[in-house]
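sorry for the late reply, my laptop died twice this morning and i had to redo everyting from scratch. anyway the thing you sent over, i finally got around to it. pasting the sequence first so we're on the same page, its 174 residues, then the predicted structure underneath. double check i copied it right bc i was rushing
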Amino acid sequence: MVSFSVELNLVNSPRSCAHPLKPPPQTQGKVERYHQTLKKWLRKQAPAASIEELQAQIDGFVHYYNEQRPHQARGCPPMRAWRELDKATPELNGQRLLAKTRVRHDHVDRWGSVTLRYRRTLHHIGVGRPNRGKRVLILVADLDVRVIDEDGVLLRHFELDPSVDYQAKSRDIV
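ok and here's the structure:
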């Protein structure tokens, strides 16, 4: 059994407190500068009578700061500059994939369906009992879903309805 003082020394040792992903000092300076700007802006506003009113003032500042005021280096609002930047996206055979594109490997269960999680909700996709036990690829591009077997045969192509658990074959595009 380890004594309490030994455990306390381990907790207080510099090694156990060092965070491997500690941000650089510049990040802290940027955060402090943002807070200074927010405080200056709030001082120019009428005093808030409630927490809700203060939150509304802060939300207004955040919208102004990100969407309206010009960025010093770019000459346009920061969010517009960010949206216009090229984002890193994966490529497949030289073709850029959408950010919400994904590939899922699955087996068709004994009832002839596979599952797909969309926005934390599990959906069941019927592909037919004759396909029981087959390995399939599920290709998802936002709400467009295709289920393909190992031989490349398209089993289903439909638009996912997030409000429905079971995606019936009557939804098929093909």
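The chain has two domains: 26-84, 91-171.
thats about all i looked at so far, will dig more tmrw
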